[in-house]
Structure formats: structure tokens, C-alpha cells
Amino acid sequence: MEKATNNLPTVILVGQTPPPTTGQSVMIQVLLDGLKRHLRVEYVRMEFSGSVQEMGKFSFRKVSTLVSLIFQTRFLLRRYPDSVLYYPPAPPALIPLVRDIIFLCSVRSLAKAVIFHYHAYGMGGFLNNRKLLYRLARLAYGRADLSVVPTLSCAEEPEMFFPRRIEAVPYGRDLPFVNGIQEERNDGIYRILFVGILTEGKGIYDLVETVSRLVVLGVRIEVRCVGVWQSSEEKKSVEGMVERNNLQGIIQFCGHLEGDDLWTEYRWADVLFFPTHYLFETQGMVVVEAMAFSLPVVASNWRGPCDVVKDGETGILCDAGCIGDYVDALVRLYKNSGLRKEMGSAGQQHYQSSFTEEKYIRSWFDLICELKKTAT
């Protein structure tokens, strides 16, 4: 890949990196670090939310943050008049959308070219029957030079804003997998891992129900759930569900983990269970992480996982919300350790060929350079 020269574009990258740690913030960090190795990148950090619980909520501090963000971005766009503006559109919620409308209408006219990177899904449904809001949103998002989505099943998301070009660039991240094979264990315990925000849309209620049925079937099971709670109300509700089903010694909530602590959980597990039906889902980076660690995946046949998991080869896809299908798939893998190894090995090969950081950054570099040529 080429090194940065004066002939290559400057990228003004606006986005939020951890904290809080979400799939979007992590992948923006990966993109930022990767592009910096090859292009001039000026980074403007969005600092609206310090935690998952703050996301999408109004505060007066966020108003001052927005004003500062506008001034910083306008300064850089004037300093680099031929630059490319990168921006991640908001998830489908009123406050983040209004923020985007104000910000983009204040800055995007100064950019030579604009890239919108859609990390969240669902804006079409949100704007349906909101005609005034849709008109304002079109002023902000309309006719981008390039709209990028993580998977093909999300490609329709930016269509309502008539971008000049839509491309799918799957997330890629370098991960410390070990030898491509999980450690052999003979204690008869089936270890299931869930990673994600602990909320109904990510399937946490479906997980508890599925585990309850597995226990009734006599499966010796341990489950670890890694992630933060979306709300205290959901935490109380799920913990009550766990208690009613006598699963306290089976399901462990580990909280937020990252780095070596998170990788240890992938090495611990026999299978990743990801029963998402999350409105905003676009890829599900945890599925990619699991494959890097040679884990078979049982996931919902939902936008994102359906693009990543090769059904019957690297894992098993089930109809979203179908507890019986989840149970059948997990029991099938429980009874067949050879199939777990086979799917895990195929998953790691799929990761190596499709989801590395090098492939991710290479795709972005090529798109940005192409955009620069067409914009001049």
C-alpha cells in the first residue's frame, strides 16, 4: 500500500472511539489507526457519550460538545479545502438525528467529498411518516459522494438519501487467535459464550430461555455473558428470569471486558451464541472475533450474522427468536465435538480470508483514493 504523499487525499475523520466501547467505536478506532499509516488523517473526536447508558439521551453538555465539534470540523475543512469528510450517521433515534442534521448542515458544504459510513441500521423505518424530519435528514445526508455499509444486507439503508455510490466493506480486525484450534477438554461441560450489549434486541432474553430448555434436556452447561447492561430495568428483569429458572449457578454476567480479558473468554468457550434481532445490527463483530478463535457460531439469521456466518460450514443460522431452533442447533454441536472443530477451523479460515484488518484498511484506502480522483 502506498505511503502518504502530497498527491493523496487528506481525510477529516469525525467519529467516536472508545470509550464507550461498542462495535462502532472499536471499528472507527481500527479505521483511524489504519488510515493514519497511509494518509494524512485529521481526527475530530465525538465525545457525546461516556457510557452506553448515555447514548441517545439529551444533556446540555452535549449541546456545547456539538458546538465545539462544528467549529473544529469547519476549521480543518478550511485548512484542507481538498479534503474528504468521513462521518458515521446516527442510529435511528430523534436526538442523535437532530444532532446530525445540525452538524452536517453546518459543515459539509466545505468538504470536497463526503463519505457516510453506516454503522447502524433502521433509519428508513424511523423516518417513515415523519415527512418534515425526512426532508431535514435529506439536507444532511443527501447525495453523499460515497456511502459505505458493513454488509450487503444493509445496502438498502442509505438508498433513501440517493448517494452517488454505495459500497459494502466488511469490518476487519487483527485478533490474537492461537493455533486455530480450541483446547481439548473432557469434563463434559458445554461452555457457551455471549458477547454484546445486554439488552432485549441483542437476544439476552432468548439466551436465558434457551439455556433453561437446555438444562431441562440434561445438558451440563456453563454460560458467560460479556457486556454492559442497556438499562437497569432490563438488568433487574433478566436477573429475575434467571432466578425463577434456577440458573444462578449456570449463567454468569461478566460485565464489560476487552483486550486479553475478552480473548480469554473466547478461548474458554466451546461455541458463541448470538441470538440478535437488534434493530441497529449491521454486522456483529463478535461473530468475526469468535471465528478468529476457531469457535463455531450459533446465531440468528438476521441482518449482519447472515452475511458473516456460512450456514452449516462455520456455524448454524436460526430464525430470529425461534427458541426451539436455537436449542436444536446448540444440542447438535454439544453432541458432536468433531463438528465443533470442523466448523471452528472453517470459521478461522473464513476470518483469515475475509475479515483481517489489512483487508479492511486496503478496501478503505482504495475507495478514498478513487473518490479523490473523481472529485478533482
UniProtKB/TrEMBL annotation:
CDD domains: GT4_PimA-like
UniProt GO MF annotations: glycosyltransferase activity
InterPro entries associated with the record: Glyco_trans_1 (IPR001296), Glycosyltransferase_grp1 (IPR050194)
Protein name as annotated: D-inositol 3-phosphate glycosyltransferase
Gene3D superfamilies: Glycogen Phosphorylase B
A Pfam family that the UniProt record links to this protein: Glycos_transf_1
Lineage of origin: Bacteria, Pseudomonadati, Kiritimatiellota, Kiritimatiellia, Kiritimatiellales
Species in which this protein is naturally found: Pontiella sulfatireligans
Keywords: Transferase
Keyword Transferase: yes
Residues of the Glycosyl transferase family domain: 184-349
